[in-house]
Amino acid sequence: MVFRKSFALESNDKVVTFHNVTEQAAETVRESGIKEGIVVISSHHTTCSVITQECAFDMSMTGLETLQQDLVNVFEKWIPTQRSEGMYLHPGQEALDYAEQHGEDNFGCHNTDAHLRSSIIGRSVTIVVDNGTPDLGEFGRIHFIDWDQTRGRTRTVWVMIIGE
Amino acid sequence: MVFRKSFALESNDKVVTFHNVTEQAAETVRESGIKEGIVVISSHHTTCSVITQECAFDMSMTGLETLQQDLVNVFEKWIPTQRSEGMYLHPGQEALDYAEQHGEDNFGCHNTDAHLRSSIIGRSVTIVVDNGTPDLGEFGRIHFIDWDQTRGRTRTVWVMIIGE
Amino acid sequence: MVFRKSFALESNDKVVTFHNVTEQAAETVRESGIKEGIVVISSHHTTCSVITQECAFDMSMTGLETLQQDLVNVFEKWIPTQRSEGMYLHPGQEALDYAEQHGEDNFGCHNTDAHLRSSIIGRSVTIVVDNGTPDLGEFGRIHFIDWDQTRGRTRTVWVMIIGE
Lengths: 164, 164, 164
What we know:
Largest interface: A-B, 38 and 33 residues
Strand content of chain A: 25-35%
Distance between the termini of chain A: 6 Å
Largest sheet of chain A: 5 strands, antiparallel
Number of strands of chain A: 8
Number of helices of chain A: 5
Oligomer: homotrimer
Shape of chain A: globular
């Protein structure tokens, strides 16, 4: 049996966005009636990721949980946010021309760090469903991440459940 | 058709734990009778991962295969093991207070590196099942990793098979 | 319902290989007749990965799209290509002896970087199938990556679809 649902989120500009989507995923699993199987939580977008991570209680100055901010910080060391041209090869002239012809933002094309981080972490997680519940442990949370800091946008998340 | 099983492992303190769970996964697939589909091997815990990696033959001084030790070593460069306070924002005061109220170990809360590494690699792998066998190639192995070096614990691994 | 297909690719020596397998995956989903579910695109090999990434238009000097080259470049910083012995613990003497006994190439054993990068990114992606189409957005592409730069080889890719 297959059951699916998508929903929309609003992401931030200027900072990496973390949305806790644990309850939406668990509620969709309950709604499906599926007791045993898997739930795939997936981003429609190539600059976003989905991860599971423990709830961290304390908050950083930008409003992220400390573990979320630590994740951003380690990526900042390896794949720094693109704050000027030339940090990465992308976007090249053809990509910029294409964007301009389609009324898109030059600044918004410089989200290479977001593309790379999303490719590495991946756009989805697959979680075991046991007895009608996603297996997350006591403090496990599902976070949708929008790595793109150039603008806020409406983002789409998929919840796809397969099982019986 | 859905078939599932979980089993327990004992992890180490002081070093990152790698458990070869290839045979348990293959045996569970055989037991299921499922010939074509997928098998998801998943950690119940947010400081653990599951990966596939080639068998490496030689061992490091801590008893890991060389490729496993190389993986630990590259993470040590990027996301070093938390050996003192202040290397990461997590755990903050609220997390430490919560732990103390629940009789948990202050030292054991300083496993931030394990949380970050697990978020990046992920808690599960999805492997194609072909003709009743997980597709791993001749030397592919499935390793359960416990990144948490602050203590040894009983860990739970899921094997979830979907197919026909 | 389950539907599967595998196909072969030829990878490069000397540079990391990216193959755009988007159309093969989409065509296999159409052929399956499955409308809602998931498609898993998976590498048979432990030195390869599958990712999704946006089309980047411009090309690098080695013939990769700029975003692909940026991904290679950030890994080069963290997990450099093995250009001489001793950069990693693997391959050890037993691995080299085994290779020699089986007529394999000593040079080709020094692909440790490829094993590590593949373990970190993973060997597969799981993509939501909605209305008979893999959910990739307008510019999303599925890339098979062969990280191994020591030799060109025939590589096998799996497309496994589960749904109804």
